[in-house]
Queue: 2 jobs
Job 1
Amino acid sequence: MNNHTTIKTRREFLQGSLLGASLSWTVPAFLSRTFTTLGSEQTAGNSGNNILVLVQLAGGNDGLNTVVPFSDDHYIKARPSLAIPARDALKVSDEIGLHPALGGLRDLHDEGQLAIWQGVGYPNPNRSHFRSTEIWQTASASDINEKHGWLGRYFDHACAGADPTVGISVGRQSPQSFSGPRPLGVSLEQPETYRFADTDPAVGNMPSGESFYRNLNRPSMMEDEMKTNVGGSIAAIAGSTNSIHHPLDFLERTALDAQVSSDRIRAINKGSLNRVPYPASALSNQLQLVARLIGGGLPTRAFYVSQGGYDTHTNQSASHARLLGELADGIKAFNKDIKAQGNSDRVLLMTFSEFGRRVKQNANGGTDHGAAAPLFMVGSKIRKGLQGVAPNLAPTDLKNGDIKFTTDFRSIYAGVLEQWLGTKSNAILKWSGTAARIT
Amino acid sequence: MAHEMRLTTDMLISLPRPRWGFSTAAHLLNRAGFGGSPSEIRQIEALGMDEAVERLLAYDDNPVLTETPDWTKPDFDRAAERQAFRKATPAERKELQKTQRRSERERMTELRQWWLNRMMSTPHPLQEKLTLFWHGHFATSVQKVKDAYLMWQQNNLFRRNGSGDWFTLLSAVSKDPAMLVWLDQGQSQKENPNENFAREVMELFTLGEGQYSEQDVTEAARSFTGWAYDRAEQRFVIRPRWHDVGIKTVLGKSGNWSGNDVLKMIIEQPMAPRFITQKLWTYFVGHPPSEELGEALSKEFVRHKQQFRPWLRTVFRSEAFYASSVMRQQVKSPVFWLVNSARILQRKLPPNEASNNLLRLMGQELFAPPNVKGWDEGLAWITTNNLLARYNSAEYLVSGENPLRIPAGKAQKKGSPPRRLPLTGAVQLDSWLEEEDWVDAEHLLNTLEIRLFQTKLREKQRASVREYLASRLPLDTVDILHAIRLLMSTPDFQLT
């Protein structure tokens, strides 16, 4: 995280705004100056600036109908009305095909830009949406409650002093993946509305209402730090508050992050365009924004987007096909856009879901909560094609009717951290297994 | 914190009489209701704590307060309409479905506003606050249920049974049509039981994750088979032929259990009273109880035979409820933020669609929780996105106008005269500002801080707003409205 942007810490922001405050409210001008210098440094070709885009498939994606073992009798038998027939599957090998709605991903496969990791899961799988999501978000063992997210811990270990935009979640909520001992990362729904909308402009030498908003949202704890600790280390500043879960401290930090990132993101979003058309879907809209922010040179390491609706207990055929179609078409457009920007070597997209679904379908044309499932990676620098070991579906090889995992999801995270984000994974994941070879 | 530790001998000891005053009364009204203007708080204060708590707890099961929408009455045309739909051609069906979707959307908008208005004006705010709790607890979304009538029914069920007996409520919710649709129970048959409801009833509604086994889930699911939803009549029905009459082993006991048997066995688990009281406490207080307090709360609930009303009486009178680590330390939920802000500013709610939009932008759309776990409360309400949404919603509430509709560049243009707001939808300051407030900035600050925060502002914030007011002299309505918006656009205002 050694870029040369002028404001990359809250502390520097604070110095700036305090300075600004005493010099007749020039904060906005001060900030915009920073952003113009920023764009040029961060664009294509900087190998130390790899980006991860995480796509959450919320609800538990039916892995078996996503990456389909179309010739497996156990599969066909377990799913009398749901099995994807061999003739419809988009074949990627003699035994494995993609769901027919995944044409977009098959195209990426044919271009050598898709990896399909099979049987990804963890020991003693939990079938609760919330607990299993938590396990994936925090990279914990299933019997350990880990509070912070795996990306939050990465930000903390490897991006200390970074701007809050080091992680961006598209949406209103902040994913648990981002939560950390010193929270970093922001969430935003749309850049256009991601601002303090002022209706009280400056007139003559009468300052605008917005300048007072900035002042009112400057954390008091940091002001105290400024007085006592000028010139001290950045870590000391961030570490000095031991009460980040005290509501007011938390609010103040978030308010400052909102202020800094709003200025920056809107400046970048304005100057950045999508270069290809995207299909119409909520996921597509999110990916479209991510592409613009990448194209505009935001120094973000991890983006987070999410697609819901995968909890298909009843009549899953139609809804599952629609979801997968939106997923594949959105990713394909995104990939093209990133390529047109010249950023395809820097961007790795990865999907995940809290669990797959039961091998056997239920009586309502749906599937209940299951265990291991495949995940996708998209990028130009990755090990492509089918990866890992296809799970065995013979009833004797299942556990409680569920697929046993063949690849631990933490080995994938370790691979991403080490081979993509360029940092050691052990301390971050608190896991000592072997990293998967993802590149 | 040290103060709370001393109470281990009697964790739920009552608040000492001398501590009852304006700020404790404000706290009670904020937490057990949706807050109020300074004069409403003073009325509560004058009652004394015990009487104030009794007033909050005393209400009929379901008083008629506001006219319910027409479509909440029994629909005698429904059967005929369904018949007509079955006979329709595919093209006609498409048209009918379109009409129906539109009418459902309109109904939901009406329903949301109906509920919000009830929160605004009810003489029994605790009833609505509990209804909101149960809505978040048995979190059911119209996005799947797709039937406003069912959502209204469920909402009324929470209102009717929300302060009564735990088993009665749980059992009624389990048979509630919206719930039957939401967690697929309505279609579950013995051949291949659907586990969705069986799992969530234990994990999220009664016991908590880890308090049951996977086998308990599958066996409970077998027991619940036959609890079905009659779509034509829009009601719960038992279908004996769908029910699995075999021996089921749930939570260590074997027998030919029915759904009701399983609910009884669940609620008799030692963890059950602990689970629900901890969640309620957290909702009203803002953070989970300590181990000892959690135990005391659970025992108190059992002592009252798992009745919520007497348990809540103990809670609202307890010193622990008024601890300094509790008062003004809870992040307002978006619904509270909206209703409370409108109440303290003594203004009407924004029109139907606008109210709902504000709530959606702040992260809490009624009848559409993100999933069956409901909304994550507390700090999770606050993200950079949602905080800015609150600040912009503040402008909307104060001026009656959406500030995002004004292009940023225009508003910021140097040298242009300050925009005079069209005041039709704005807060009517005349109805509560005092005469001195218009001429004395310090007086105005006092008035605003007590109304908006029910306490003193931090000096830093105070100085900043004082400076703002000084820069705008002489003050006119628009200046004061802007000042209120600024006060609402602070970290401090997000807490109650």
Job 2
Amino acid sequence: MNSGEFSIPLIHNSVSIMTPFLLAGIGGLMTELAGMLNIALEGLILIGAFFSVIFAASTGSLFLGLLLGIMMTIFISWIFGAITLYLKANVFITGLATNLLAGGLTTVLSFHMFGTKGVLMFQDLPKLPSLKIPALHGIPVLGDILLGHNILVYFGWLIVVLAWVLIYKTPFGFRLRGTGSNPAAMTALGLKPINYQMAGILISGFTCGLAGAVLTLNLGAYVPNISSGRGWIALVVIYLGGKTPFGILGAAFIFGLAESFSNYAQGFMNIPADFILAFPYLITVVAMVVMSIIQHQKAD
Amino acid sequence: METYLRMQNITKTYSTTGMKANNEVEFEVRKGEIHALVGENGAGKTTLMKILYGIETADSGEIIFNGETVKINNPIAANNLGIGMVHQHFKLINEFTVAQNVVLGIEPKRRMLFFDNNKAVKSVAEVIEKNHFHVAPDKKISELSVGQMQQVEIIKMLYRKAELLILDEPTSVLTEQEIKRLFITLKELVRQGKTIIIITHKLDEVKDVSDRITVMRKGKTVAVKDTADVDQAEISRLMVGKSVVFDFDKSQDGCREPVLSLENVTIKKRRQERPLLDRVSFTSSTCEITGITGVAGNGLTELEDVIAGLRPVTGGKIYHNEEDVTNKSARELRDGGLAYVPTDRLRRGSSVETSVKENLILTSHHDFMKRGGVFDNDKIDNYSRGLISEYLIDGSVDDPIGTLSGGNIQKVILARELDGAKDFVLFSEPTWGLDVASSEFIYEKILEMRHRGTAVILISSNIDEILTLADTVLVMYRGRIVTKQPVTRELTREKIGEYMLGLKDDYRHTDDMKGDASEN
């Protein structure tokens, strides 16, 4: 096989795989801009993944599953936010608690409702519709890479654009960034920083719910701990993307590529499987080191 | 001119310290005037203005504004009434532009939804032009000078249609040029019909810019004057008030061996106009208390840090017993015999969440080890109990120090620092915020150190404290020592006050300033 045949499906796959990183990254960006490192992303993705697929299975509707799954995730993020902001708990501890809660809650409910702590298969769940525009499929390379994904992939791109507009073009975005930059400036003008921090947390609940739904609805199944570190990598994506929505799109693609490569390489190359599976995490470490070096040079 | 604002019977007690910051304060401002609110640090000026701007709430009293009794519970309510405040420390968002900072919270919108940056720039430009400010609305705050940042703060309030502007110590961070420009701006604003309250303790500025003066002292209004009717000396006298000097036995032991000498100690940062410390020289000797005083922001804090070994100097030398100790670490200085009772008791002087006994052995814990590197608890307990009874500390060895009263916390720090042989002791604001009984106890301990032959350096903004304890007084103004005098019965608060406020300066025309306290 020539390299084109290998790389186009690889990249096509990355575009799809990067979506959870992208969505969680955008959500985390909102709290980051409001001055809080949101380590609860991982748990929120898991909540979204679990509830969207079981709601979809029980209602028989992908749309309702998605909607209710996201609402559930927003609810959990509201609890996380309320404890952090109104009861003034340390955001790192509450974030950690949210992650532990997500793991426990999904396991308990899974066992209680389906009698297993293992994989939940939903055979008769409809597949996520994918975008097919026959006229555009003729475009070489680009058409092959960008088309034919499920609609949530495109919804993710839409969210990047919406986030950009929200952050840079609306009064809300200004206040959100003002909160992260100097909350005292907000207070002096009678604005309440806490409101914008809460908004940031709720938005991250929304995008993480969606990120989780992408994982399970695409698969038609729930696998325990299906988020498998994506929420943590999303934090890296935020920094690597320079804390801008389009930067996050780029950074998410790099991690999509890394994961996609590790999936492919298992079948093709004679590299130890452990090393290949560790590849996305190696990329994380390398990316953080590179970022740190660049920042130090900027500071000098 | 008519009365514009009247604050009546304002009382405010801070619950954390129990201090009465405002005690039945009366304050009245007329329309179209520049009114100077003056007083020493802690006189209650800023508290009064925070109450007016809705940041603090008064326990009692009322505010009558424009003929109506008003309740002001938050800054927005103040803004709606036409009252604006420019804080001493700027509240700006560095990565935003001038216009974005100004409109934050009341942003102009496009199609109901979007932030209209063009309109923001345009309307802020109008305010800038009308008031002759010199700042571009589309520049980022991080690109501005300090003077321009202050202009942005004023523009913020004018954009919110403020008619009464409060400026809290507006000149403290400005250069001479910027101060001149600010005063021109203020006079221009008054010409347009605005009213201005300016908080300050700089008397030359009060004379320059204000129409009337209200003087506050210890939470009370003590005088209201037309600026034209008073001279700086009288304002100074009103500000510092009468002396309350304790009478302690200061009989002389006669030993005066130099211990610590500072020679032309200077701290100057690059691109900074004025050094934080400017050629400070003095010698502290055995059996002597060297008192150093000044108004906040004139170098006392920096001097404290330098003597304690917590901040490097950029010029000059420090000698301890003729050994060069310039820029030695705090640890090295302590090993050499430094004891240090810092201004900030809770963060620098103690570790609030740990117990009294742990705080007592913080600097000497190596002496309390058993073999194998674990603490000998019985030894620590015995040692701590001894100090607790010697220093009359109201608390037990295992209490977290943070649960003790301010006076007892300070006694624990004193016990730790003064126990054992010391060469020299640095006290900084040792009785700040403490009750009379604790203060008196601390005074006795300071004098006891002197009798033991220790060299004592006492940094304090409390003139009475200096007059009570010190043998020699140095006054700092703008980072320089402006006078050195022996403390005698003839030396009064008023005289020191004049130096503190920059009215007098013994070394103004001396380029090579090489005085030495011990020679006085």
